[in-house]
Write a structure and sequence with these properties.
single chain; AhpD-like; 9 helices; 70% helix; globular
């Protein structure tokens, strides 16, 4: 297996930073990290993106999630492993990922269920996170990017970057 081209996020100037900044913005909206990993995994399943599916399933495991939750994301409606808030986020993810499947892509019912569990900031964060993962999925699927063991190193690097960002923010808050 070979990718069609090198990942465009790495070759188009500013693309990687823009995509990463979009994901970072979503993480600041107050949605639990595991919920974000779940929606990233579900959108990646729908879109057939092996790179993102591999990455986000590993992130869930690294976050301490049990196998049952990781394995059953695709069947979240039929399992007892997800909270009502996570179910609402997953339903919103499916609707926003499959926009062309129905005339009213995101029904009031789906939106209102999500709004029961997430405030305006959380809903905005979910929408941004869903948009971001769909962008990554489309880039990777269109160019047939290949997953592999490099994903573990990428996750470690991202986790360390997030930790450094949090520490810097904490130091900045102490100075105020």
């Amino acid at each position: 297996m070979q990718p069609r081209i090198k990942n465009p996020a790495m070759t188009v100037p500013g693309a990687m930073e823009a995509l990463q900044n979009l994901g970072a913005a979503a993480r600041k909206a107050g949605v639990p990290a595991t919920t974000l990993y779940l929606i990233e995994m579900r959108a990646s399943q729908i879109n057939g993106c092996s790179v993102c599916l591999d990455m986000h399933s590993r992130e869930l495991k690294a976050a301490g999630e049990p196998d049952e939750r990781v394995f059953m994301v695709g069947a979240w409606r039929e399992t007892p492993y997800f909270s009502d808030a996570e179910r609402a986020a997953l339903a919103l993810t499916e609707a926003a990922t499959r926009l062309a499947d129905r005339s009213d892509p995101i029904s009031d019912e789906v939106w209102e269920e999500a709004a029961r569990y997430y405030d305006a900031s959380g809903l905005a964060g979910l929408v941004i996170a869903i948009a971001a993962i769909n962008a990554w999925n489309r880039i990777n699927a269109a160019t047939r990017q290949i997953t592999g063991n490099w994903v573990d190193q990428s996750i470690t690097t991202m986790r360390n970057d997030r930790r450094s960002d949090a520490q810097a923010a904490s130091r900045g808050a102490e100075m105020v």
